[in-house]
User: What shape does this take?
Amino acid sequence: MSIQNSDIMYRRLIEGVVDYAIYMLDPEGNVMNWNAGAQRAKGYTPAEIVGRNFACFYTQADQDRGLPAKGLGRARDEGRFEAEGWRVRKDGSLFWANVVIDAIHGDEGELLGYTKITRDVTERRERDRQLVQAKVLAEHYSAEMRSLSTFLEAVIAHIPSTVLVMDALSRNILLANRQAETLLGHSRAEMEGRTVQDCLPANIAATVERLTDEALRTDGVKRDEEEWQTARGSRILRLDTLVFHGVDPRSRYVLLIANDVTDENAAHAKVRYMAHHDTLTGMPNRRLFREQLLKALPTQGRHRKTAVLCLDLDNFKSVNDTLGHLIGDELLRMLAKRLPKALREQDTLARLGGDEFAIVLPGIEHDDDVRVVAERLIDVVRPSFNIEGHTVSVGVSIGIALAGQEDISADHLQRFADMALYEAKRNGRNQLAFFRPEMEEAARKRRELEMDLREAILTRQLQLYYQPITDASHVNITGREALMRWTHPEKGVIMPNEFIHIAEETGLIHELGSFALHEACREAITWPAHETVAVNLSPSQFTNGSLVSLVASALQESGLPAHRLEVEITESVLLANSAVNIATLNTLKKMGVKVALDDFGTGYSSLGYLRTFEFDKIKIDKSFTQDIATNREALAIIRAINGIGRSLDIPTTAEGVETDTQLERLTQEGCSHFQGYLLGRPVAHQPRAEPAVKPAAADDLDLDLDLGLAAAP
Ligand code: C2E
Ligand code: CA
Ligand code: CA
Assistant: This one.
């Protein structure tokens, strides 16, 4: 091949290369020729670019830094210059170029120009960049993994539970956290890589083994609670064991988490205790009582019974009222210590509230055994208590109900005992009563009566009867006592002894009492001016603090002068809350109202009461009148009362005089006033004729005429 031919071929070859931009520059850097690769890479046709300076391929910033000239300079001085950098296409887009510039010298060493080979390596550069990024990322991740593992380790260490992980196959401990170290008293190093038998006390190891076996068998979670002798002493632990699989599904691990629940259990036990015990006395409360009763009922054997005793203290309220709640509370606490002395280990004594207690006696063979227990209870309560220098005595009333073979619910049994208690209370202090079926009927009647009584107040079925009281002449009437009667639409006339106590128990006494005061005053205003009207006040009327205003309104509305109203109270008014009640009585007295002490000689009678308040009258209870001829004790009491009446200058009224003999003896004994069937029965008030037709000397008329003669029981 001729030199010329080979030169042409060489040029064709170069011009045909499309992957490389190959062109020549003159010594000033102007493009001398331009191959297909250059056109492809940079977008210029040879006509457009030949003759232009190659600096136009550089970015403006690179041109400003003089890079084109520097590149040529290096090639000239060093023969070759190689670099990579951004180059600009005709359309302004950029590509990353690998550039090689070779200086071409003539035979004499003079510079002819440069060859320049440029390759678009944008893609390679991108790959490299990604590779670098991936490497950076990988390094970052590996650092992160390292910190994650330390992080997880810290987490496990700080879990407030003991954590042990064991390999299911070898049973070696693989992991033990910090809590495990303190609980078990071994360092991680001592535990990890060894089995529980190898490093833990035998009983703990046995439990862990057992739980592990169970968890592996079921592949589930096992929970248990056990007391362990640990490095921190005897602790109750809640143990959860579960199995999990590793990345390789054939590997299994056992995770044991132990939580110390000693304190939590103690707190729960305390809450449970508080829910079942009375805070004041520490005795079981109503809830525990019920639970124990429910437990006792079905377990009674063929011949054994369960007894429920309901207890209520006699006179507790007055202790509270007179000595204060602190003494009352102390009394209850002392009782809580005394009462169990009468009981067996298996009996449950509970405080239901206030001064109410109840007892479950399981396994009773004979009814009489319960009587013995009840009597013992009465006996242990009887001796007086010494509380902060006060001598306090109370009694206890007990109602008893027994459940044997018959199907009887806990509720029923308790209600029966309650009904029996009601009966015991009615019989006085320190009494016990067994439930009898009639009591249920009586309780039902009481409830019925209570409902009827509400109705009676609304529909004016209540009425006052008046019984005359005479002076020593036995004929001059000085006043009349108002006695309530209830005319029931079906049952006929009901006597106060049948309904007053119901009114007292239900609070209806306030309505009844208000009616009696207003009605008695309104009717008495029509009587002769020297006659008084006596109205009975129940102790419960003293409890709501409005008694004084009630009396005042009755007087004001009727216009009756205060001195013509006499209120009759019993000693129990002085017994309960005496300071407040005496103040009330004194206010009434200051208003001019007279105050009589009723039924004197019965109940807690003490002549001392006569000194605590200046009574206007003492009424000697009719039981003494009835016994005067036959009972020397009755006579002695009448004498004593009259003696003190004389010395304190208080008139005495003998109640319940039915015979001439009684009247005679009572007159001899010095009674100043008399009341009884002999002198006049309680009768309904008969309105007087209108003043216009009334005879002038109405007051002188026979009183039977005035009041009519509607005889009453
Ligand atoms: P009390 O205050 O002792 O009243 C006297 C009771 O003796 C009356 O009974 C009267 O009917 C009865 N009585 C009168 N003379 C004789 C007699 O010669 N022989 C006999 N065996 N009894 C006689 P009553 O009316 O049944 O009243 C019973 C109790 O009911 C009263 O006893 C009183 O404590 C209470 N009571 C009556 N009315 C009221 C009232 O309006 N309010 C209050 N809080 N209590 C009342
Ligand atoms: Ca009376
Ligand atoms: Ca009386």
Summary: The longest strand covers residues 233-245. The longest helix spans residues 122-158.
